[in-house]
Design brief:
With 337 residues, the protein is an alpha+beta fold. The chain has one domain: Bira Bifunctional Protein, Domain 2 (BirA Bifunctional Protein, domain 2), CATH 3.30.930.10. It is 33% helix and 22% strand. It contains 9 helices and 11 strands. The chain has an 8-stranded mixed beta sheet, sandwiched between helices. It has a 3-stranded antiparallel beta sheet with strand order 2-4-3, with no helix packed on it. A hairpin with a 4-residue loop joins strand 9 and strand 10. It is globular. The relative contact order is 0.18.
């Protein structure tokens, strides 16, 4: 896909005013539905964390965090990339019990992101995390949770369509989930890139959970990067939906059962990140002090794009764009917020 791609003949289902109204309703609907289905309580979340704690998400390990000093506190801080590790610490500090969890509005800056139709340097998502028992660290539990989230997506879409009849022109999200591993896709299409494999599979399986992201495949390369210190690479994945406007696979959520002390120990070594073992978060986890959890992030702007039939993420969020993107959208009559 080109950096900025506007489908020929594209016209938004909703005007600018109704788009803003629908975004507000959609967000309230989905977070209430998700919270009820997964037994999550809403909590407040930080925009930045102390750099020395190791709580910031390192993503693929190469992205630079936005950093600044706080003279009054005597610390350096980093704007979060995501709250993957912060949430687990919060569950520990707030003394949540097994079966209980939290969700929060996460706003982040990813300065090294390459903006296109789906990506922006500004990231907004529902970050959620839930305490689980040792017996729940299974593929079956992960898949059950995925089905619950997809059901929440479907219910939100159904309610939104009843309020905005213009959206009935868009296809419904498929409620049946196809589960496939990254290794199965590599075996099937060894000559395709990971993203091409996703497009090829999801075109025929419109709601897919792609499992096993982060570890090396038989080719010696991972399907995609994952930091070694939050997801267990054998118990994680992405929820991918077919986007009918852009005609491609569309990641709506990255999630997984989180690392245990044993899998963290193993993944830190594989990733060459043994220096993190002495950071406060990692030390507590390796010592077994933090609860076992499952969690993930669900893109707010991504979901708005999909359910409102938008072609560019800038139609549902305000950000900063390069001149090429601004020109391409202006020429196509696409209004960026």
């Amino acid at each position: 896909m080109e950096k900025t791609y506007i489908p020929q003949g594209y016209a938004p289902c909703l005007n600018l005013y109704d788009t803003q109204k629908a975004i507000a309703i959609l967000k309230r609907l989905f977070e209430d539905t998700l919270g009820g289905a997964l037994h999550l309580r809403r909590v407040s979340a930080p925009l930045f964390v102390e750099a020395s704690t190791g709580l910031n998400d390192d993503l693929n390990g190469v992205e630079r965090a936005v950093s600044f000093d706080i003279p009054a506190a005597g610390h350096d801080a980093q704007v979060v990339h995501s709250l993957a590790k912060w949430k687990r610490m919060a569950l520990y500090r707030y003394q949540f019990s097994v079966g209980e969890g939290l969700y929060t509005d996460m706003n982040a800056i990813r300065r090294d992101e390459q903006p296109d139709n789906l990506h922006s340097v500004y990231v907004d998502q529902w970050d959620w995390e839930k305490v689980i028992a040792p017996r729940d660290r299974t593929v079956e539990y992960l898949q059950t949770t995925v089905r619950t989230i997809v059901d929440c997506l479907c219910k939100t879409q159904s309610t939104l369509r009843s309020m905005f009849p213009q959206l009935t022109a868009l296809p419904l999200i498929h409620s049946e989930v196809s589960f496939v591993t990254t290794q199965e896709l590599e075996d099937k299409w060894p000559d395709l890139t990971p993203k091409e494999r996703e497009d090829a599979w999801v075109k025929d399986h419109p709601t897919t959970f792609l499992m096993g992201i982060g570890g090396a495949l038989k080719s010696g390369k991972p399907h995609d990067g994952r930091a070694p210190d939050y997801d267990d690479w054998s118990l994680n994945g992405d929820i991918l939906l077919w986007n009918p406007v852009l005609e491609r696979a569309f990641e709506i959520s990255s999630m997984g059962i989180r690392v245990s002390p044993e899998s963290l120990d193993k993944q830190l070594t594989i990733a060459g990140c043994d220096d993190r073992r002495n950071l406060p978060f990692h030390k507590m986890l390796l010592e077994g002090k933090l609860p076992l959890t499952i969690g993930g992030g669900i893109g707010q702007s991504r979901l708005c794009m999909l359910l409102l039939g938008k072609a560019h993420i800038g139609e549902v969020q305000a950000s900063v764009w390069d001149s090429e993107t601004l020109s391409a959208c202006e020429n196509a009559g696409v209004i960026l917020l």
